[in-house]
Amino acid sequence: MDPLEIDCQTVKQKLDSNHRFLLLDCREQDEYDTVNIAESQLLPMSEIQQRVSELDKHRSEEIIVFCHHGMRSMQVTSWMLQEGFTNVKSMQGGIDAWSCQIDNSKLRY
């Protein structure tokens, strides 16, 4: 696994233990409307450069980014690290892996 990635089982453990972090969904609104993780905050990759200031309070906090399969979230993770965020990881496999490994009631698309 890439050092910039985290597996969905570890993310689930963090949620279950009330570990404080931002779970950032970088998919588009229509994807989020189709299926989402309740604890996540939506900020689409297509809007993040214009809306990055919304994340300023999280600059030094842990942020885990996810998308559909993990490609966009890896791009967003790399970009955020370049922008000065200090603790960002991409959830490997995205919400598709979450649907298969954590919560199979979540719609796959």
Give structural notes.
The chain has 109 residues and is α/β, with parallel strands linked by helices. The chain contains 5 helices and 5 strands. A 5-stranded parallel sheet has the order 1-5-4-2-3. Helix 2 links the parallel strand 2 and strand 3.
In short:
The chain is an alpha/beta fold. It has helices at 8-16, 29-34, 48-51, 71-82, 94-101, and strands spanning 5-6, 22-25, 41-42, 62-66, 87-91. It has a five-stranded parallel β-sheet with strand order 1-5-4-2-3.
- How many beta strands in the DSSP annotation? 5
Shape: globular
Main-sheet strand order equals 1-5-4-2-3
Tell me the major beta sheet. Answer: 5 strands, parallel
| Cα distance spanning the termini | 24 Å
Radius of gyration from CA coordinates: 13 Å
Secondary-structure class: alpha/beta
Keywords:
5 strands, alpha/beta, 109 residues
Write the layout of secondary structure elements.
Elements: E1 5-6, H1 8-16, E2 22-25, H2 29-34, E3 41-42, H3 48-51, E4 62-66, H4 71-82, E5 87-91, H5 94-101
Parallel strand pairs: 1-5, 2-3, 2-4, 4-5
